[in-house]
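Cross-check.
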Amino acid sequence: MKFTEYDHWFLEQAEGFIWDASCEHIGPYVTPTVTPDRPPWKAEWTVLFGDGFYFRVVENWYRRSANLGGRGVRKAFSFHYGPTNPVRDDEGTPLYSDDYQAIIRIDLDTDGRSAHLHYDGDDHIPQMRVQNLRISEVDPFRFIRAVVEHRSNHQSFDKIMGFTVIR
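Predicted model, tokenized:
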């Protein structure tokens, strides 16, 4: 994917949500990290809800090799929803803390660990234990729509997103 395509898609999708006036937004940002309009780039968006919960989506895109077209490919992502830690970074984003565990977190880390879930008190649930969801293919807006639905009807994320965790 080209930066301009991704930037347009991400910001257009973000504009499609209607938020309560009590929400605080950090982003959405799509930022080239080296050269404008070329990979690598990073997308970030955090919404802090007035009731003490938040979501955060982050994606990191890197350059494919020139023989594969040189476009961007998503190499890492992290999507969080849960209680808001009052301790924040310089931009206002809640810092990670064991005291404020996410209700759901979907990750693909850069440390070589494959895509996985943190859900229902269970950490690093690998794809082989998750049915009916390709973790590596979840996009930030599918996740955000699930957060919105969960907040409106309090249904569990496994029901909303249609997955099952094998225990």
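Helices lie at 3-14, 140-153, 157-161. Strands lie at 24-32, 41-48, 53-63, 72-83, 104-108, 116-119, 122-126, 130-131, 164-165. Passed to J.P. for a second look.
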